[in-house]
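We modelled the chain as a single entity of 469 amino acids. Its sequence is:
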Amino acid sequence: MKKRALALDALRGTAIIGMILSGQMDLTHLPAWMAHAQVPPNSSFDPSIYGITWVDLVFPFFLFAMGAAFPFSLGSKLAKGENKYRLCWDSFVRALQLVFFALFFQHMKPFVISSSMDLVSCLISLVAFGLMFLMFVNDIVPFFKDSKIGTWGVKLSAFLIGFIIMYNLEYTGKNSADFDIYFSDIIIIVLANMAFFASVIYIFTYKKPYYRLLVLPFVMAIFLASANPGWVKLVYDFTPVPWAYSFYYLKYLFIVIPGSLAGEYMYEWINSDSDTVVQNKDTNAALIALTSLALIVSNVVFLFTRQLELNLLVTIILLASSYFILKSNQSSFGIFWNKLFTIGAYCLLLGLVLEAYEGGIRKDGSTYSYYFVTSGLAFFGIIFLSVICDYFKCVKSTKFLVLSGQNPMIAYVATALVVMPVLTLLSVTDYFDFFSQSAFMGFLKGVLLTTLAILITMFFSKIKWFWRT
């Protein structure tokens, strides 16, 4: 019997919820570890600060989940014999849609349309949210359900209408009153680059994971050599569409490609011959979940407080404990977790060894230590969620993570395009100064707005209206 894995959706959901929460809290009175390490509350960006916080994990965890999905989205098609070049084209089209999504979302925020967030800007944002269902939900129009041409006709019409709206608006909430092709959501632009380049790498290294890993040293070499004149610098600087592509974005391949290995291990486990899971080692499963969570928490805490030697010691102890816990577990779960543990431990230790390079671990500008530490921790995040969601089957308590992870695009825009416009129309935002009074109230604001966004996402996931590119 084919097993079902919820851990990947849960990891993606954890990342997207973290993104929303970190962006909606009032940071006025919150401690530094509640914000990006290099952007403390009430301060501007400071690249001289080293370390990471939990906020610095959410984006790499999402990228990792993106890579982990490749064996399911691309690998399953390759297994059926689909043409590699056709899949590359599909990946390119997906990237184009994400670039449009980045532009449209950024321009359709009500506070961008109007600095005062008036009635018209809120209504336009809500209309934009509705229009994106026609852009990104397949078969949303029943009449064209069985017609690929009809489906794409609806999509292209929605994209055209969206562009016309976006192009003709007069903006008062940004520097330029006109449409600006460089004014986009940078996170989505990075995802668009990964959607194409990482997909192409996966397609041509399908069932050859070591070849896939061999791409990374060449990417690193280009980054390092680009500091000096020569043809490598020309390659690095070449960007025919600077608003959509930069070689600089390819640094995140160091997270996405390891994620694809985790996805392959998960895909193998789901399709393994073992049709049932013998749950006779519940204590071991609980222990591996606890040590995985402890690895994530301890690394964040000690790297943030710069207790580097203590962090290395604690990490080695926890890794050794995990090794002995998993050593004797020969169940299908045990084999799966052991594979994740091996690569995760390697990435994490490599990242810690690189910690001193480039001054220390840092998200902005990101360091090699950051890529490998966060990808290593993402492996342990998958192990933790696999134990909770798939082994112990805590389905109800993790449902909000899974449903959010299944519809991340809606979750990502729901606060800006739905929650805030509705609350503004209801005059609720007039009382938001109340949340600036204390650290607790600032955190509560983030929790409330995130909860509303997740409830909207869960609703559309339950009715199976998924945004896909």
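As a brief sanity check on the tokenised model: The CA atoms of residues 344 and 379 lie 5 Å apart. The chain has a mean pLDDT of 94.
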